[in-house]
């Protein structure tokens, strides 16, 4: 939850304000991990709320058992679905790839997912983080306001988004006013 800062401004004259908000949202760029351990899950996955996410795990033919976990809960073990969530489906279980798909991702799906395999009787895991973004939106904002010279005014802007939005206030000069 991003809460915009309130700004208290003493005005020199009676003004009607027309304000515009600018948001800067850093793009969620997955970072390469130089990690070459096996199994190799993909890098962190960033999706927007409501989109689907595919979690891929690269395996090879020495692998005898495979599973995908959400934290410590098994979602799929081989082709067997353990999750009761119908948004979760298996998309690939071959000698080289073991992948699942999550439809309609929501913010509570964010977190670590683990690809777990068994090779020559040794369990091995690889972890990937699912990161869910929500486009910024204004939840509440002050209306246009008229005040007397010398008095104070409080302007409110309440915004929500993931990552947390940056709220900025800008004073438009009178020639910029179009409202
Ligand atoms: C994946 O995301 C987690 C949690 O945000 C972070 O700690 C980790 O460094 C990320 N790994 C990579 C390879 O980007
Ligand atoms: C992952 O686990 C979290 C916490 O238990 C849960 O809220 C979420 O629905 C799970 N997501 C999937 C895709 O299993
Ligand atoms: C917006 O904030 C104002 C001031 O805090 C409050 O009075 C009003 O009820 C809020 N409106 C909504 C829709 O939350």
From TrEMBL:
A Pfam family per the record: I-set
Keywords: Cell adhesion, Cell membrane, Disulfide bond, Glycoprotein, GPI-anchor, Immunoglobulin domain, Lipoprotein, Membrane, Repeat, Signal
First and last residue of the signal peptide: 1-18
Alphabetized SMART domains for the sequence: IG
Positions in coiled-coil regions: none
Topology of this chain in the membrane: Lipid-anchor; GPI-anchor
Family annotation (InterPro entries): Ig-like_dom, Ig-like_dom_sf, Ig-like_fold, Ig_I-set, Ig_sub, IgLON_domain
UniProt family annotation: Belongs to the immunoglobulin superfamily. IgLON family.
UniProt name for this protein: Opioid-binding protein/cell adhesion molecule-like
UniProt organism field: Gekko japonicus
Protein encoded by which gene: LOC107112316
